[in-house]
Amino acid sequence: MNPDIARLERRARDLLPPAVYDYYAGGSGRERTLRANERSWRRNWLAPRVLRDVRSVDTTTGLLGARLRTPVAVAPTAYQRLAHPDGELATAAGAARAGALFVLSTRSTRRLEDVAVQVARAGGTWWLQVYVMRNRALTIDLVRRAAAAGAQALVLTADTPVVGRKRREAGEQAFTEADMLVNVGPVQDPADLDQSAGVTFADIAWLAEISGGLPVVIKGVLRPDDALACAAAGAAAVIVSNHGGRQLDGAMPAASALPGVAAALSTAPGPGPGTGAGTGAGAGSVPVYADGGIRTGEDVLAAIALGAQAVFVGRPVLWALACGGADGVADLLSGLTDALAHAMALAGAPSLPQVAGIIGEPVG
Amino acid sequence: MNPDIARLERRARDLLPPAVYDYYAGGSGRERTLRANERSWRRNWLAPRVLRDVRSVDTTTGLLGARLRTPVAVAPTAYQRLAHPDGELATAAGAARAGALFVLSTRSTRRLEDVAVQVARAGGTWWLQVYVMRNRALTIDLVRRAAAAGAQALVLTADTPVVGRKRREAGEQAFTEADMLVNVGPVQDPADLDQSAGVTFADIAWLAEISGGLPVVIKGVLRPDDALACAAAGAAAVIVSNHGGRQLDGAMPAASALPGVAAALSTAPGPGPGTGAGTGAGAGSVPVYADGGIRTGEDVLAAIALGAQAVFVGRPVLWALACGGADGVADLLSGLTDALAHAMALAGAPSLPQVAGIIGEPVG
Amino acid sequence: MNPDIARLERRARDLLPPAVYDYYAGGSGRERTLRANERSWRRNWLAPRVLRDVRSVDTTTGLLGARLRTPVAVAPTAYQRLAHPDGELATAAGAARAGALFVLSTRSTRRLEDVAVQVARAGGTWWLQVYVMRNRALTIDLVRRAAAAGAQALVLTADTPVVGRKRREAGEQAFTEADMLVNVGPVQDPADLDQSAGVTFADIAWLAEISGGLPVVIKGVLRPDDALACAAAGAAAVIVSNHGGRQLDGAMPAASALPGVAAALSTAPGPGPGTGAGTGAGAGSVPVYADGGIRTGEDVLAAIALGAQAVFVGRPVLWALACGGADGVADLLSGLTDALAHAMALAGAPSLPQVAGIIGEPVG
Amino acid sequence: MNPDIARLERRARDLLPPAVYDYYAGGSGRERTLRANERSWRRNWLAPRVLRDVRSVDTTTGLLGARLRTPVAVAPTAYQRLAHPDGELATAAGAARAGALFVLSTRSTRRLEDVAVQVARAGGTWWLQVYVMRNRALTIDLVRRAAAAGAQALVLTADTPVVGRKRREAGEQAFTEADMLVNVGPVQDPADLDQSAGVTFADIAWLAEISGGLPVVIKGVLRPDDALACAAAGAAAVIVSNHGGRQLDGAMPAASALPGVAAALSTAPGPGPGTGAGTGAGAGSVPVYADGGIRTGEDVLAAIALGAQAVFVGRPVLWALACGGADGVADLLSGLTDALAHAMALAGAPSLPQVAGIIGEPVG
User: Fold this and answer.
1) pLDDT in tens, B319-349
2) Cα distance from C267 to chain B (closest Cα, Å)?
3) What three-state secondary structure class fits B281?
4) Residue C283's domain is classified under what CATH number?
5) Is residue C363 part of a domain?
6) Residue A284: is its pLDDT beyond 70?
7) Within 13 Å, how many C-alpha atoms sit on residue D143's CB side?
């Protein structure tokens, strides 16, 4: 059975202060993109195969050279101590236990070195999400510490030159105090921590360079032309995402953007040896991931069928963290992986590459 | 008038224990496919012809060599004694009386030899639905008994390598006890009765062989490529089906899959003489049937216009069985056949082949 | 302002016996086609022209040689004395007063010769709707009387080889007694009055012949191939219609069928001189009319833009008849014509031929 | 944050007499076009770009030679003293303060010379909306006064050969008394003030001529062919508009019509030097503007992405005027401009020409 994420969310809403719940749950503007995300993965019927040998179903996948038990990964989300006292330590531990990739947010409320220890202990993999902050020295310092601590890649959030405006966030100021951000600062001007609105494709190579050659994944890409520009600039992978409906309201759901981006990148040449992306998908292609509204094993199946190599899950992880700490996160991710395996068996696709093409016509 | 199936269902729900009703009525996951099935047959407008001579309307059809009064057939469903004390004996008798094909489930709660006698007495035709069980000896024994008892074909359920997960089936365990399954077992390990997840196209020929040459119909096909693979492997026919919305949630409705499958098979060569499918549709094509959500004569008309030679009805037969036993089943099937004949007259199509092409544009 | 037909219907429902209201208002089966008819005329946006001289707007049209003030015509409907004591006499008078064509039903409850006098007095035009009854002598007699009385055309209802089954008509038997049908019978076997289910295209010429050369209009055509077959068989015009949603439930709305039929007929050769259709649309084309769900001037505009030369209105005329007799009918038809003229001015189309092409993309 | 226009409207409804509110808020017929306008701008997903330098976002635009801080302009609306005692003086002042173009209605309730002074004082730009009145001498007088007072262009309303019929306007007669119309009349026959139903493309040149060479913008164009005809007749620009859903009910939303009109005009030659349109968009193209349902910065972004150079806002300006006079209008327009700039940053489009192409697939 799929994890009951709606129930998890209801429980988390009861547990959390309203301002925290709203900060996590809300989207920008009229929340059109937020609402569209979940249903978008169900916009095409699935076209299962029959009479395939599915006695053994394999959900393992390689993400930029790391072998993981599942293509379901933890999306970077901010201020996790607001959800649970252990914050990012618990999330990272839960992910590692489930064999899932963990992406740590720049706005983490636990020190990245401590997170790294937690992940290493469970044999896991983690990446660091970064902004190119207005004060670039802060980014240089953060990235070098992450590389030293064992981060396997950087995830540059590209869709946030300015922060989307949300109705539900009266209380957000409380969360953004410098003392919660243990990995950056302290700074005299809080604006130094903001993403620079001047970040461009050239910064992909800059990030690779300052990190000593880590692969750079670009998060927030919705257009084939942008995906190709990322690849040409040395990106190791792109994440099709609308930032969980928190940036431009009206931006397309990832499920709409994914096929075009995947098609464009499937023929793009992979990153060269000098970009730090040598552990990527190999010659001839740049891998595509996706996030936004993934809630069931069937959703994961659809995302992979539409061209994603992995999917990222954000809010459900926060609800699981709030309700159950590391165990809650591990149970959620294992549950989604098990539901994916079940759906793969029913679809006649015993491994992830065989999921390609099981998408049918649009739901009428 | 069409039979009032909604009323039949309400009456059956009142009569049956809730767990039994839920077991019959439920679907897998979020029941998206379950809900879509019924409305899918109404997704295109009908395009009736006028000024045709319809003084005589003929609903007879040939199914793998058997002549039947109606293209409306009884789908295989499990544990019919839960609906009525006479179980499959009543359903088979009702179907035969209405001139309709009856398909007996492997999970029948009446002995197949007794069912065979019942059908033969009324001059009817029956097929056996089979799984390739993990313990293949059980399947061999079952198939040989069916062939000896007069089954005219085998129906291999292809969409169930594992069983779909349903929310509504807290009570199902009660129904699956070995003593209800009178045609297979007893077994020491109940898992021996499950379909093997390793069943493949090669098992089509195996079933034909162990049955001494019975035609093998593949149920659960939704893709043109799979349909062609079935035909190439010796299938005598395919049933476009999503298992009544009980397997992969999100799988396409039969009405969506049918045109593509029918188009693919219309040009595929028919089964060869050595495959046991010699009573099939003849040289040059493999017939297509469909099930899932058929509730009215107009629905049957639509299915035939979309390329089906016959349709199978599942849950409505169970409601009719629960409410009226053999007579209930006969009334339901006769009622649907009469409603089909009425719709054929209004469509200017006095015989089933003339129904081709009466489908118009999608409902807006 | 458009006539408030919803209000007229509410008033008529209050005035009429429930069984009569249900008989008029109901449709066949699940009433899917009935419900779709009204909204179908609004399925495309209108694309008005600007900066055209619309100081004078002309709604006059030629229908099979007769000049009429409006393209809005009265559809044939049965048993009008159930709506008003004057029955068809009132409807015919109202139509003539509004400059609208009147079509008398075979199931009229007033003598056709009396209706003819009424229409002639007001300088109007009427046609007779006919069935080819099982007892053809009845049809011959009826048609000859109509021709003698001044009917200008025959309208053969082609979509009724058998009568559609309706849920709402418990009381219909009361209306079908022979003594209400003053133009046919009396007969010993009521089935003699039913349309023969064996009527075919050949009967078009037969009707022209027995009428002494009246044009024969075919009502109930939804397919381009059938429209072409009608033209080839000598039809003077076709009416795209699903019989007000009273025959095959699920049949396409006229608005869906109209463009295809109009396109097919626009290039079909017109009826030859020997078919009685010499007063038709002239060499090179067979005109198309439509009915089903027309309720506003904008609906009429849409129908004409989609290829109709005229539209027929059924139920609203019955509500107007019930509420206001001849005056009510005249007001309704004049009101629709005035609303059409207003819409033509706003669309920059001062005459009916200029309405072509004012249809835009489908409503999203 | 976007201005909360729904809240402004609720407050205005509370402040205004019901008949005035209804006059402003209502649309023609069934209000289908009225309702469709707002949602039409959200019918396609937005496709934002990433990794563009958006440190500086520029919303300035040139409209027929005038440089304005924003592409959001004030649409001409009648009888503004009904909303606020200062009427058009307040609206014009608010628009000028926000750097927005103001279009004065012929049915202004403040003298155009006074409005002109108000606009000039704030360094703004204004255009005059005109009808070609039945009594052309009235139009000649009005246009010459406007030209003398500093109007930079004329806006000919082309979609009003007759006035659309509205249900909600019982009280309108009260507003149309001659003494409210301070810029035209007094006249003995009020019909003299109505637009002539005989206005055609030739009147574009006539307006340019009587104004001494002002550019003539045509408002109400929905068809590419009409747009081309306007350009050929010397129009300086066209406004894609359905008159706020107040004329032909069922006319397409501007968002539907805009791409076709923009595509047609993008290749049309611009107006010649003798037409008074020499301050237009330059050689080779005629600019396109749009109105109808624009309510957010994202809506403006969508309109520009679909081909508009500017958008006009009608009802929201009236609500702002009613609630806050000139300040209210300025706040509304500044707020929309700020929200547009925010959306442009999030879309990776730091200037208006870069907004082209950020439209994705239709919302499902």
Assistant:
1) 999 999 999 999 999 999 999 999 999 999 9
2) 21
3) coil
4) 3.20.20.70
5) no
6) no
7) 25
> If pLDDT is split at 50, 70 and 90, which confidence band does D284 have?
low
For residue C33, CA distances in Å to B44, B178, C251, C254 come to 12, 49, 6, 10
Among C274, C349, C251, C334, CA closest to C304: C349
What is the model's pTM? 0.94
Whole-number Å distance between alpha carbons of B353 and A71: 49
Residue B168: name the closest of B300, B342, B13, B343 by CA.
Answer: B13
Query: pLDDT digits over A11-58, tens only?
Result: 999 999 999 999 999 999 999 999 999 999 999 999 999 999 999 999
Contact present, A72 and A337 (Cβ < 8 Å): yes
Average pLDDT over every residue of C152-168:
93
A191-195, C351-355, D44-48, D185-189: least confident range: D185-189
Mean pLDDT of chain A: 93
CA distance D223 to A226: 34
Q: Which residues of A touch D355 (CB under 8 A)?
A: none
| Residue A232, domain extent | 5-355
pLDDT in tens, B134-184: 999 999 999 999 999 999 999 999 999 999 998 776 555 555 555 678 898
Q: In Å, how far are C80, C206, C317 from C9, measured between CA atoms?
A: 15, 39, 10
Residue B362 within a domain? no
The count of structural domains within chain C is 1
Q: Best residue in C223, C243, C246, C306 to probe B by mutation, most B CBs within 10 Å?
A: C223
Residue C126 phi/psi, 5-degree rounding, is -135, 150
The residues, any chain, with a CB within 8 Å of residue A65's CB and separated by 6 or more, are A152, A279, A280
Count of CB atoms within 10 A of residue B261's CB? 28
Contact partners for chain B, using 3 or more CB pairs closer than 8 A, are: A, C
In contact, A118 and A96? CB cutoff 8 Å: yes
Q: Over pLDDT 70: what percentage of chain D?
A: 93
What is the average pLDDT value for chain B, to the nearest integer? 93
Q: How far apart are CA C301 and CA C306, in angstroms?
A: 9
pLDDT at position A308 over 80:
yes
The values of phi and psi at residue B157, to 5°, are -80, 115
- Sequence length of chain A is 364
Q: Do the domain assignments include residue C303?
A: yes
- Rg over CA atoms, chain D: 19
Select the residue of B198, B248, B253 nearest A347 (Cβ to Cβ): B248
Q: Is B342 noted as a catalytic residue in this protein?
A: no
Give the count of Cβ contacts less than 8 A between chain C and D: 89
DSSP A15-31: HS-HHHHHHHH--BTT-
Touch between chain D and chain C (3+ CB pairs, < 8 Å)? yes
Does any domain span residue A21? yes
At residue C90, the pLDDT reads 98
Number of Cβ within 10 Å of residue A85's Cβ equals 10
Mark out chain A residues that contact chain D at CB-CB < 8 A.
29-30, 32, 36, 40, 43, 158-159, 161-162, 164-165, 167, 196-201, 203, 218, 220-223, 226, 229-230, 247-253, 256-257, 362
- Is residue D243 within 8 A of residue D257, CB to CB? The reply is no
CA atoms in the 13 A half-sphere facing the CB of A273? 0
CB contact under 8 A, A2 and B250: no
Residue D147: CB atoms within 10 Å:
18
CB pairs under 8 A between A and D: 89
Nearest CA in chain B to A52: B200
Catalytic residue among A107, A134, A243, A295: A243
Neighbours of D188 (CB within 10 A): 9
Q: How far apart (Å, rounded) are the C-alpha atoms in residues D262 and D8?
A: 32
Measure B69 CA to nearest chain C CA, in Å. Answer: 21
